Amino acid sequence: MSTSPTILIVPGLRDHVEEHWQTILERKLPKACSVAPLEHDKLSCAARIEALQQAIAKIDGPLVLVAHSGGVMIAVHWAQKYDRPIQGALLAAPADLESPLPAGYPTLDALRDNGWLPVPRSRLPFPSIVAASTNDPLADLERVKQYAADWGSELVDIGAVGHLNPAAGFGEWPQAEELLGRLV
């Protein structure tokens, strides 16, 4: 008899947003938890990777990651540094941190200075699904397709859903559970 995996939510740079689909999913699933928000060094990629590692270290048994936006980049950076077995990862709406982001987001210089660049491009050591929006203001679809190919991820076109966040009209995102089912 196999043990059902723990679902670990990896939020993006805005951390925990009450009405975000990840927060709703965490409340809904029985074996779900989230990476704790950072109090300091919020833009530090290294601090984010270590926060993810601390959360993972507390989990015994099978584990599935559910990352969104900058959280996707945290997960792929983590995979370059650590080798704990991961059953799978749902990587939703990855932000393209290698291209200028809209106003209100970190600049390329700030991202570079804080360790986010370059974005890791090697194959992930676990199965993964990249859920890509066709009209994401934080990532061109062609760039996301290239990330998915580089990471060895299955690409799933989730349509014109913006950045898949409350600003784009997404609180609950039922398709997340469907895609998770394919990894579990």
Automatic annotation (TrEMBL):
Transmembrane segments: none annotated. This is Alpha/beta hydrolase. GO terms for molecular function: hydrolase activity. Keywords: Hydrolase. It comes from the Bacteria.
